Amino acid sequence: MLKHPFHRWLFRHRGDVRRWMACRLHDASWWAVLVWMAVGSASAAPAVALRELAPGVGYTNEVLERGPWSIHVVRVARDVPGVQVVSVHAEGGALGLATVSEQVDSIPPSVGVPLAAVNGDFYQRDRFFAGDPRGLQVMQGELTSVPQPRGGVAFWIDAQGLPHAGHVQPALTVTWADGFSAPFGLNEERPLDGLVLYTAAVRGHLRNMGGREWVLSPTQGPTTPLVATPGADLSLRVNEVRTSGGGTVPTNRWVLSAGPMWLRRNPAGSNTLEGATLRVRLQTLPALDGARHAIGGGPILVSGGRAQKIVPLRSDSYEFSSMTQRHPRSAFGWNATHWLLFQVDGRQPGLSVGMTLEELGATMARWGCEEGMNLDGGGSSSIWAVGRTRNSPCEGRERDVANALVVVRAKAGASK
After folding, report:
1. Residue 258 or residue 224, greater confidence
2. Same domain? 309 vs 260
3. Residue 415 lies in a domain
4. Do 260 and 187 belong to one domain?
5. CA-wise closest residue to 39 among 298, 355, 397
6. Are the beta carbons of 118 and 112 closer than 8 angstroms?
7. Edge-to-edge strand order for the sheet containing 69-77?
8. pLDDT digits (tens, 9 = 90+) for 67-105
9. Which has the closest alpha carbon to 373: 319, 310, 284?
10. What is the DSSP string of 229-293?
11. Is pLDDT larger for residue 192 or for residue 321?
């Protein structure tokens, strides 16, 4: 509600004011008024109450004429016994696609009862590696995906059960007996000049063309469980050498795959024989040792309770140009007492036009978020709460996506 007389006048005459101000944007004071007109409704205090769907779980669909915007908010009390946030993937591994609803349905009872969920990271949508998340993913303590070398924003739960959001950079390396060391990617499409490690999270044929693959097993013996935990520092034996790509990942084995151009550039590593020992380190910056769950996304939208200014890189890439455009949006945030999941409908004139990232950040801060980050949006944007999808997908139905964040209520005594 606009209480101040000037605000009411400004709203009634906003079209004339915008045209008049177009010639005067060099004055910083007029920029401040433009910002008020763009996000003022998004930053006003919530005027709707949440409906309780389950003990400690509140939901509302806030509709604002300014936009118009249809905003879905799920708030889960963190002090409800057994409540925790888990990261899931479409097929329980590193690749594959499924709707958020399907991913929720696939959660085993041993993990907990799903209360709320939102779609997760940006991802590869097609070809052999469809469902490969762009950034970090950790599920039940297993590292299944890392960002590209330059790093990316992620949310994670540390070994003490505390939430974090920030920039994570991979520092995965493999070292040969002669001291030669090289960085590698994890469970992703291998380029011709790349080196990628595939763990048990990848099923089926790897479909890499050419190059060479080394099948790795634990030096302690073939029955020793081989699990990719964040921060792991492992000694592995070359169990088999494949002279071309495209094999599978055997049970309790990993596969290190090198492209043909990588082999030509790195002769020190290319001649590795069966029986050789390699040191594999699954490290990141910052260290995520002991992290149980993590998911990529970004950018950070709220920090210290304040909505962040979003300044995209100067690029024609949709990744950056879309940040200042209005699209369907998803986000995840929290404060000292609650987890908060957000979804904004978009691309539906008359219902909701979507938000820019700054508008989304202002909305999150208005709802009490102390920290929060953006997730994949557009047709991927979906939010689920206590039994069903709550938003209006812009494509008319849920899209198959790579992963999701789910708030569950675990049984007493369940591992966190």
Report:
1. 258
2. no
3. no
4. yes
5. 355
6. no
7. 51-54, 57-64, 69-77, 338-344, 329-334, 371-374, 300-303, 306-307
8. 999 999 999 999 999 999 999 999 999 999 999 999 999
9. 310
10. -TT-EEEEEEEEEESSS-----TT-EEEEE-HHHHHH-HHHHT--TT-EEEEEEEEES--TT--E
11. 192
Residue whose structure tokens are 């085993």: 108
How many structural domains compose the chain?
3
Q: Which domain holds residue 16?
A: 5-43
Specify whether 348 is located in the same domain as 308.
Answer: yes
Q: Are residues 303 and 398 in the same domain?
A: yes
Cα–Cα dist 255/246, whole Å:
11
DSSP state, 161? Answer: S
Q: Tell me: do 261 and 321 sit in the same domain.
A: no
Q: Is 156 helix (H, G, I), strand (E, B) or coil?
A: strand
In angstroms, the CA 269 to CA 217 distance is 18
The two tokens of residue 72 are: 């879905």
297 & 281 share domain? no
Residue with tokens 């609650």, as numbered in its chain: 338
Question: Do 194 and 215 reside in the same domain of the chain?
Answer: yes
- In a domain, residue 414? The reply is no
Do 24 and 58 reside in the same domain of the chain?
no
What pLDDT is stored for residue 32 in this prediction?
38
Residue range 181-205, pLDDT digits in tens: 999 999 999 999 999 999 999 998 8
> Residue 367's CB: how many other CB atoms inside 10 A?
22
Torsion of CA 243, 246, 252, 257, to 10 degrees: 60
Structure token pair of residue 1: 């509600």
Residue 27 is classified by DSSP as S
Cα separation, 200 vs 190, whole angstroms: 16
- Please state the rounded mean pLDDT for residues 340-364: 98
**CA distance linking residue 331 with residue 341, whole number of Å:** 6
Q: How many CB atoms lie within 10 A of CB 207?
A: 13
Could you tell me the CA-to-CA distances from 171 to 94, 181, 268, 287 in Å, in that order? Answer: 19, 12, 20, 9
Tokens of 242: 């494949």
Residues 33/20, Cβ–Cβ less than 8 Å: no
